[in-house]
Amino acid sequence: MNRLQVGRPSSAPRLPKPGMKWCNYTRHFAPIGDFKGRDGYCKECRKLYTREYRARKGNPYKDTKREFIAIKGGGCQGCGTKDERVLTVHHIDREEGKQDGGRQSKYVKKAVKHPERFLCLCRNCHWLVHHSEDFHLLDKMTKNMV
Q: Where are the chain's structural domains?
C-alpha cells in the first residue's frame, strides 16, 4: 500500500499526481514542497491549525512569560520599560545559560520556578550586558533593582 494514501477517504482520487502528498488536516492533496519533513499538514494548514489551537488553549509560553515579568516587578530591571514584547529572560550565571541551549521557552519555565537565578531585561539592556566593555554593568543593574 502506498504511504501517501493512508487516511485518505474513499471520495478522494485513488492515486496522487506525481509530486503531491495528502494533507491530513483539510483532506486534500498538496505539493510535496508544502510539507515540512514528515509533518502530515501542509504549510497553510499548519498555520491554520496553530491559530485555532492557540485560540482554544492560549499561548502557554506567553502566559508563563507574563507570570515571570510579574514576579520580577513588571518591567525591565535595567531601564524600567514595561513593554512585554521587548522583555527577555537573562541568566545571571552564564554557564547555566549555555547548558539550557539558548531557548527562551526553557528559560521562562525555569525562571518562574527559580526567579533568583534570572533577570528580566529588555532587548537593549540584555544586549548591553552581553556586549558591553563595562564588565560590571550587570552588577550595577542588579544594585538598581527595586
A: 3-57, 60-143
